[in-house]
Specification:
The protein is an alpha/beta fold. The chain is built from six helices and seven strands; from the N terminus they run βαβαβαβαβαββα.
Length: about 150
Amino acid sequence: MGTVVVLVVDGNAFTRRLTKQMLMNLGIKTIHEAADGVSAIDAIQNVNPDVMILDWDAPILNGREVMRIVRVPGVFPKASLPVIMLTDQGLRSRATLSMQLGAHEMLVKPLSPKILEDRLLGIILKPRPMVRAGKFYIPMPRRHVDMEELISAT
């Protein structure tokens, strides 16, 4: 996974360092960090990451707000950027919202290096096309998801 560029967005410097270490252990050499959602938006445009690991509770612009800015095809330059959303609460409502916002994955902190590796490999080796689902712009679901149910859940 050496040529993969990853952007890690988290307000907590310790969490960023830990995530960066896990990524380095997976052989990823190019890792950029952003401490808040505004820096994340800048970094996406400047460092052109292959994957963004985004904290649900990022400061200034939170993970949800960042996703609403990024997932606008034709307006935002990297609207299809694969995103792994990190959260400290594995709530079903969060998972649903995360999916509606277009995240490829949602992982609960503290991160497991093995799960992070599995999800990254899935994103890199089996990329999913982005599709429109009502007003959402999301990765094509891996398993059958009732799109109508997803759209009406808002």
